[in-house]
């Protein structure tokens, strides 16, 4: 997995849910013909990993149709000098670490090794590694320690799964011990689903090392991950579809609309699907994984480790093993010269019994499904507890006047919406959206295909020819309106949400439900309607990745709608999502605050209900914070109180919570100066904005920036929005969020007439059916909903 420079809680048993006996300890089974003893199986697992990695590397990031056009069906090596990638080298890295410390391995050992063997070395030119590894190295070099070192955008990646096989080899016959050890290793670089993916692989290999049949290997993997996790759902769907072949397995787990392929739930699902479809046969499993594409080096490496442990090294075709020598150190120079067979031998001494950890005291093994400290039980149940019951929060009867305040005080008096504030919200959001540089690209989506293609080609030409600007009349003989200043995706998704607010108030739904519940019902209908369109588009597509959708949206929204179309419901639609952390729900949350003006807690709860369709974690926290801030401002709060209300919604231990508090502290330190807002820009750029990513769409960046600028500007939209636009990496949504909050604080009167005229009409670049929507008229309709 390389992007190079080119459901039971508390660890209880799941016997009833999986229909299986406990696999905490798998007794050794008679070896199939040729499988041999522990040493032979260990060599099969490690060599199988390396072979799968080398076979799959050329097909990485390709679709099956692209593989067929290049090579037909891959049946062997398709390059002259096959070699392993980061999958093999990181597996060697973890294997050496495990051989050194054994079952006494600690997070401190792992963190020290990352520093000594990788992070603290002069790596020279970029050698290539997965995004999760790059993010981890960036954090370690900044002085962050585990588990915070694993707080990056790819904590769910398959970077742990790709190096998990050695833990199964070491803990042969003990899947739960393998899962415990790999979680220790992964704490430095991964979290959540990234840990679960590694645990599933380690447990599966541990079971296979004891000679377990395929069904028991799969069950062992499922037993060590939460039942309602993305990894478990993906694995179960893949294995259930295995008998129907490659296309069925891909359709069951591949995330459409997501360009990167390093998702642990997806890769682990594809690997186990291939292994199950092959009945454990090595060549069949590995080649199926290779020909399904996506993160083919990792999926084939995992399938190879599982099948290699099942069948032993002698089952691997010699023509596949002969070309592979010691690691070249392409990604990890310190691993150069190490051979996977040496790692296998280190982890399984000749004198080892059939179950390599069988001599250890039984009390050292975890119960089936148990988690290391801090990772106990169901991730969705944990998230629900963390957020105060979250998405499933009960409705408080009646309207916002009857809702209890956070302190438990009597209900507030009703707060009527002020049209000037509502206009300020929508126009401030639209102005910030329009001013950010990405809006021009979003709007250009309405241009003909040939003009967009020409733009891409000219960008490439300019880069190759060291040209800074290359003006070309791409709108020649074309209407230029899409290229003119105006709002784009953020404003259109805000209007999409406003439609549900209007539906809840138009008498269509039962008035006895109360306004909040009617709004939730209207949101549900809107999301399911869109999901139906997504399902129809997917059904017409030859491959999951090829579906042509009737809208443009963030990855989180596309993935959430895909999950909804596939039959999942919130909160799983937002949890099983590669961009759960982005800010797509934050602009929607600003509009939902209109349902509960002056009542931040109820506004936050409603925003979370909506956010759970597409987000999890910081993506939900950010939505709650923006809804609370806007609701407070609608109720008369000033800038400081509105910002503090938002901060109260952000748990301190989260990235968004830490960033927001730090950003606001910086803002308030600058505030006495007359140019405080502009002076704050470099501080936010260097201390809040993450420069690892090309687009700053994470809620943990954009929401803190918006809150800080609102505070520094003292609620003045004319200062907050231009300052946000200066932060180019977060200029897609941070200006829109800052504009929404300060637009409410200053009302529409604070916006220049020129911006009002330019930003009041939607173009339909993201949601075509909204083309021509007038935000001023929409504000008038929304005002009448109270």
TrEMBL record:
Binding locations of Mg(2+): 85-87, 295, 297-298
InterPro entries membership: ADP-ribosylglycohydrolase (IPR050792), Ribosyl_crysJ1 (IPR005502), Ribosyl_crysJ1_sf (IPR036705)
Chain residue ranges for the region called Disordered: 1-40, 387-416
Organism encoding this protein: Streptomyces longispororuber
Bias kind Polar residues: ranges: 1-11
Single GO molecular function: metal ion binding
Comp. bias intervals (Low complexity): 403-416
Record key words, sorted: Magnesium, Metal-binding
Cited PANTHER family: ADP-RIBOSYLGLYCOHYDROLASE, ADP-RIBOSYLGLYCOHYDROLASE-RELATED
One Pfam family, short name: ADP_ribosyl_GH
Co-factor(s): Mg(2+)
Cofactor note: Binds 2 magnesium ions per subunit.
Protein name per its UniProtKB record: ADP-ribosylglycohydrolase
């Amino acid at each position: 997995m390389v992007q190079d420079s080119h459901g039971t809680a508390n660890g209880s048993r799941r016997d009833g849910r999986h229909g299986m006996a406990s696999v905490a300890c798998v007794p050794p089974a008679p070896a199939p013909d040729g499988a041999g003893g522990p040493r032979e199986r260990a060599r099969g697992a490690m060599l199988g990993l390396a072979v799968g990695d080398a076979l799959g590397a050329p097909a990485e990031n390709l679709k099956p149709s692209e593989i067929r056009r290049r090579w037909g069906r891959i049946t062997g090596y398709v390059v002259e000098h096959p070699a392993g990638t980061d999958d093999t080298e990181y597996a060697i890295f973890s294997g050496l670490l495990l051989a050194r410390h054994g079952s006494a391995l600690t997070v401190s050992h792992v963190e020290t090794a990352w520093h000594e063997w990788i992070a603290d070395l002069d790596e020279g030119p970029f050698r290539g590694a997965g995004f999760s590894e790059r993010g981890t190295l960036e954090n370690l070099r900044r002085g962050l320690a585990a588990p915070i070192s694993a707080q990056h955008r790819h904590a769910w990646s398959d970077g742990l799964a790709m190096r998990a096989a050695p833990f199964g080899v070491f803990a042969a016959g003990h899947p739960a011990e393998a899962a415990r050890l790999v979680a220790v290793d992964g704490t430095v670089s991964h979290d959540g689903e990234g840990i679960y993916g590694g645990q599933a692989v380690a447990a599966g290999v541990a079971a296979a090392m004891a000679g377990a049949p395929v069904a028991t290997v799969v069950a062992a993997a499922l037993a060590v991950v939460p039942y309602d996790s993305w990894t478990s759902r993906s694995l179960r769907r893949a294995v259930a579809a295995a008998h129907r072949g490659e296309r069925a397995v891909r359709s069951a787990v591949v995330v459409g609309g997501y360009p990167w392929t390093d998702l642990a739930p997806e890769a682990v699902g594809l690997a186990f699907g291939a292994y199950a479809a092959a009945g454990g046969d090595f060549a069949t499993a590995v080649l199926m994984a290779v020909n399904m594409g996506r993160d083919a080096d990792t999926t084939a490496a995992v399938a190879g480790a599982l099948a290699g442990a099942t069948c032993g090294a002698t089952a691997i075709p010699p023509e596949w093993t002969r070309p592979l020598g010691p690691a070249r150190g392409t990604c990890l120079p310190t691993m150069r010269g190490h051979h996977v067979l040496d790692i296998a031998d280190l982890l399984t001494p000749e004198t080892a019994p059939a179950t390599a950890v069988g001599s250890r005291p039984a009390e050292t093994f975890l119960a089936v499904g148990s988690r290391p400290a801090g990772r106990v039980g169901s991730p969705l149940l944990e998230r629900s507890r963390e957020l105060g019951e979250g998405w499933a929060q009960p409705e408080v009867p009646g309207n916002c006047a009857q809702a209890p305040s956070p302190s438990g005080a009597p209900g507030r008096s009703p707060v009527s919406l002020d049209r000037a504030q509502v206009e300020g919200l929508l126009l401030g959001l639209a102005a910030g959206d329009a001013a950010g540089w990405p809006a021009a690209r979003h709007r250009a989506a309405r241009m003909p295909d040939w003009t967009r293609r020409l733009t891409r080609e000219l960008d490439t030409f300019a880069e190759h020819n060291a040209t800074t600007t290359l003006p070309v009349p791409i709108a020649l003989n074309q209407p230029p309106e899409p290229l003119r200043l105006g709002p784009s995706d953020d404003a259109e998704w805000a209007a999409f949400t406003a439609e549900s607010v209007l539906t809840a108030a138009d008498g269509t739904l039962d008035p006895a439900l109360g306004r909040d519940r009617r709004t939730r019902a209207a949101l549900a209908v809107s999301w399911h309607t869109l999901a139906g369109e997504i399902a129809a588009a997917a059904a017409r597509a030859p491959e999951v990745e090829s579906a042509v959708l009737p809208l443009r949206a963030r990855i989180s929204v596309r993935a959430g709608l895909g999950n909804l179309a596939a039959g999942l419901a919130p909160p799983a639609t937002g949890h099983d999502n590669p961009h759960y952390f982005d800010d797509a729900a934050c602009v929607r949350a600003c509009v939902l605050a209109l349902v509960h003006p002056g009542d931040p807690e109820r506004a936050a709860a409603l925003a979370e209900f909506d956010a759970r369709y597409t987000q999890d974690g910081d993506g939900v926290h950010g939505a709650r914070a923006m809804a609370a801030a806007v609701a407070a401002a609608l109720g008369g709060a000033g800038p400081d109180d509105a910002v503090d209300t938002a901060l109260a919604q952000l748990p301190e231990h989260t990235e968004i919570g830490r960033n927001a508090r730090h950003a606001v502290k910086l803002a308030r330190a600058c505030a006495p100066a007359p140019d405080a807002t502009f002076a704050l820009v470099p501080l936010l750029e260097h201390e809040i904005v993450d420069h690892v990513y090309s687009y700053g769409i994470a809620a943990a960046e954009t929401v803190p920036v918006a809150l800080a600028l609102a505070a520094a500007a003292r609620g003045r939209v004319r200062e907050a929005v231009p300052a946000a636009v200066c932060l180019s990496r977060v200029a897609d949504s941070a200006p829109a969020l800052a504009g929404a909050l300060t637009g409410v604080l200053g009302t529409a009167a604070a916006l220049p007439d020129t911006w009002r005229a330019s930003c009041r009409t939607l173009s339909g670049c993201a949601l075509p059916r909204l083309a021509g929507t007038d935000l001023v008229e929409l504000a008038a309709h929304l005002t009448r909903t109270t």
